[in-house]
Structures are given as structure tokens and as C-alpha cells.
Amino acid sequence: MIFPRHGALLLLSAALFFPGCGEEGPRIDSIHPPVGRMGEALTIRGERFGDEQGESYVTIAGIAPTASSYMSWQDDAISLTVPEFGESGLVYVHRGNKKSNAALFANEETIPVPVTGIQAETGPRISSIEPKSAAIGSAVTIRGNNFGAFREGSAVFFAWAAEQSPSAPAELSGPLSVPVSDSDFGYEAWGERELRVRVPDGAVSGNLEIRTGQGSSQGEYFEVAEKPGSKLYRDKRSYAISYAADIRVAEASAPNTLYIALPRPVSSASQRLGELLSRKTLPFIDNYRGVSLYKLNDLAPNTGAEIAVSYLVEVYAVETSVNAARIRTGRASALEDAYTRSSPLVPSDDPLVTRQASAIVGREQNPYQKARLVYNWLLREAEIDAENRQDDVLAALVQKRADPCQAALLFCALSRAAGVAALPLAGVLVDSSRATAPHYWAEFWIEGFGWIPADPALGAGAAPPSFSLREDAASYYFGNIDNQRICFSRGETTLPRMESQGRASARDRSYALQNLWEEAAGGLTSYSSLWGDIMIDGVYVQ
User: Fold this and answer.
1) Cα–chain center distance at 341
2) Which of 122, 194, 300, 441 has its CA 20 to 30 A from that of 294?
């Protein structure tokens, strides 16, 4: 349910927001076979299962096998017979009150069969995938027909899975999907009979499919190669949000135009943009580089206009466990090339930054360890506080004082200078009373694993007064992120001027990192704009 605005959300305890910490739970590295039949043997490999089964157990698609199903139980491997559950589903190892990350098992008997009939003639059809197994970030070629000569609104989807609450409806317990990402340079080629894409962040082994305006393809099983660790999406929280921009015109003459670039909540592996709940004005372009672009024409003096929207956004907490020794480095991908470059907000090639990055990482070559060294240096050497606002990243570096925005940008600049792909994120934190505050954090990329979160500000304790901060914040916020935030921009959103004579304006330290928020053109001489806070109208806790 969605709680009313002044409802019972305040009764939620801090324990609901922050799961306890302590001894690490079991971890699944792989299952074999990932596709099988009922009654066949399944082997689960990983760590911390325990030397004996005792009270520990496995669940597959929410069903626990009988005691006689287990053939062997070791600390790093479990063998059992697959129970008769009839559907594909997630595999977990339960030990004490700890539950492992999820692995996806596909029941061979329930994998979709090739489409026949009318849809087979008009909809997309996959004939082959090469290779059939690859790591996160790797290139995959998909051949078939009816893909469309141009991509337009079409997309490729890989399997994706999140830990589900025992109280979640049964129809939500199965595997979901994650699209190939444009911002991660996931689409390399799109043609009528051949696509070349990269395995997206968050993908797991399971069915791959293509969705176009002519329909969806049949699902084809694709195996995500073993990663150097695990990533868990858990504790889903759905937010009903609303926000607006209020325009008041003082002096104007026709013709005139006002463009409003309203940030949209980001869609990613850890945040799903659900349904549009309401919208007061139709946008000129609904999704333009991550914003909804509104165009207001011929505004009259002493009049006003309001741009208001409301969305449902699903946010997951992310927990990662990385075995740095298993990370492989090689030729840089397009993503790594793009997100190690210098930019106005992230000046990673400035001599001050490069010298400091070199001093921090020394001879370390592992990208994960480099990012950790940068994070630890920031928490140890820099004073991070909301009051420590600096003009730019270089000033923050010289003075070793930064607010959350500059702390995130400085983490990205130092990481990029050290050769680690990183990007800043902007959005809002949500406290237990549903108040919001702009916030900034970062992600860094590990080829073969995906994006890993880091929040130097919360790690340093620089949280709003009303925000309940974890006791283990310093360690938690490297590699993990909570579900008490909504992201509005990943990286820098760069928007071009819509008109050559347009007068653009930006909003510094707001909830999105974009260069242009408003642009006035023509006879719009004088106007004011009031951008409201992000309002939380309801919260659904799974």
C-alpha cells in the first residue's frame, strides 16, 4: 500500500531502514547447471555455507527442498536435487538469520518456445547469440530478423534479479529484466538482422529478449560469466514523488519562448522509474537526455505557468562483495574511455589532481583497490561537511574542505586521474519524516562486475540533521548504498541551447547535475521561477 502523506511512516524503526551488521552471511558464486530439470542434481558453489548443514537450508523459487534432497553440504559447495516447483526462480542459501545473494535457476521445461504464427512474421526473432556467455560490459552479437532498421524506442533486455521480501506477492518473486544502457555505451550497432550490445550492469544469467514496436522476441537463455564477487539488490522501497517549477512573468512581448528542462528520475539497475502518476502540462519532448523538456510560447506580462509532475519510483539498496584478486584488466572499453576523461565538473587532468591521485594510489594497479584508496584518503584527509562549500573541485582539493557535492566530484576526479572510470550522481536523500535534501554521491566501474557505489559524504558522517546515519557509515558507503535516496542524474547532463540567442540559466547544488535548467528567448524580458523541493507523497515498503 501507499501510506498517506501524514500516515504511519513515522512508526517505522531505524532497524527497518538499516539492516544489522556483523558476521558475513553465505555467498553464492555460481550454480551448475544454471538451466536444468526437476529431479536433477544442482551444485551451488560459494563461501560461508558452513561445514555442516545443521539448521541451514536452500530455497529455489521460494521452495525449500526436503531433507532427503541434499546430497552433500560443505562450506564452499552444496549438492542437492532440484525439487518439483514448476517455475524458474532465485536460489538462496540460508544460514542462521543470514541469507546469501541470489542466483537464477531456469527450469528447462518452462523456458519460452520459439514464437510461431503472425507475430513470428512481424515481431523480432532471435536466431543466435554470440557468445552465449560473457561478463558484464562485454560485447554480444545478436542475429535474427525483424529487429528494425533503426533502434528508435526498441531495446534489448537481460535477466535481472532482486532479493524479494517473504511477504511479496508470488507474481513478483520471479526474475525481472534490465535494459541495455545508453549512458553505458551499451548499443554498438543496430540493424534489421544483427545487433551488437554490451551486457548491462546488474544482468544475471537468464532469458535475453528484444522488445520493439512490433512486439517482443522469444526469450533466449544467456549466461552472465562468473563475476569477481556478488551484487545484491534488496529492500525495495517505492516512492510516490511530486515536484514543480512555478513561473511568473513580469515583462514580455510576443514572440517569446521559455524552455524548462525538468529532471526525470533516473532508470538504472538499482532504481526503476515506474508509472507517471500525474502531469499538469505536456512536455515538448518527454525524455530528452534525461530531462522532460517543456516549451512555453508567447507568455504574456503579469501571467504565470506551472510545470508539475508526479512519479512512482522504485529504489533498491545495493550491497556488493568484491574479490579484488579476481578482477581482470585489459584494453579499455568505450565506457572506461568516456568516464576517465576530464570535464569542467571533474577536472581529472589538472596537475593538482593528477599529482594527488598518484600520491594516493602509489604503485597499486587494481582499479577496485585504487578507488578504495581514494575513498579512504578523502575520509581521512578532507573535512567533509555541508557548510564547507567551495567554488570548485580544485579549491576543495587545495583546502581539503568540501561539501557533499564537491566531495563526490573530487572522488570522481581523483579516481579518473588514477585510471578508474567514475561518475557523479545527484538526487535527494529522504529521511524518516519524508523530508528531502539534495545529495551527491558517486559510482565507479569495474569491467566484468559493473558499477559500484561510493558516498564519501555519508561515509564521513556529513548527513542532514534529520537523516538517521548508520553506525558503520565509513565502511558501508564504499561498495554499498541505501534505499533512502532518489537519483535524478548519473554523470553530467549536458543540454545544448535550443535557440542561438537564448538566455540560459542553471541551478547550482540542486538535485541534478545539469548545465541548463531554463532558457528564455525572444521578448521574454523579465520573469521569475520558483523550483520547489522534491515532495514525498507516499512510501511503499516491501
Assistant:
1) 21
2) 441
Report pLDDT digits (tens) over 375-389. Answer: 999 999 999 998 888
How far is residue 332's CA from residue 336's CA, in Å, rounded to a whole number? 6
Q: Do domains 113-226 and 320-489 have the same CATH topology?
A: no
Q: Is the pLDDT of residue 258 over 50?
A: yes
Rounded Cα–Cα distance for residues 412 and 351 (Å): 15
The C-alpha atoms of residue 451 and residue 433 are separated, in whole angstroms, by 30
Burial of residue 317, with CB atoms counted within 10 A of its CB: 0-12 exposed, 13-18 middle, 19 or more buried? buried
pLDDT score, position 171: 42
Judged on CB neighbours under 10 Å (0-12, 13-18, 19+), 496 is exposed
Cα–Cα distance, 427 to 474 (Å, whole number): 20
Half-sphere exposure of 133 (CA within 13 A, CB side): 5
DSSP for 442-483, written as a single string: EEEEETBTEEEEE-HHHHTT---TTS---TTHHHHTBTEE-S
CB 319 within 8 A of CB 234: yes
- Name the phi and psi angles at 17, rounded to 5: -75, -40
* SS3 call for 110: helix
CATH topology classification for 113-226: Immunoglobulin-like (2.60.40)
Sign of the dihedral defined by the CA atoms of residues 49, 55, 59, 62, in that order = negative
CB distance 241 to 310 below 8 Å? yes
Q: What would the 3-class secondary structure string for 290-347 be?
A: CEEEEEEECCCCCCEEEEEEEEEEEEEEEEEEECHHHCCCCCCCHHHHHCCCCCCCCC
Q: Where are the domains of the chain?
A: 25-109, 113-226, 234-316+494-541, 320-489
Query: What CATH number was assigned to the domain covering residues 320-489?
Result: 3.10.620.30
CATH architecture of 25-109: Sandwich (2.60)
DSSP 8-state symbol, 490: E
- What's the whole-number mean pLDDT along residues 510-537? 95
* Cβ-Cβ contacts under 8 Å for 155 (sequence gap 6 or more): 179, 180, 210, 211
Name residue 58's amino acid: V
Q: Which triple of cell numbers denotes residue 312? A: 512512482
Q: Is 411 helix (H, G, I), strand (E, B) or coil?
A: helix
CA distance 133 to 225: 6
Least confident window among 16-20, 353-357, 359-363: 16-20
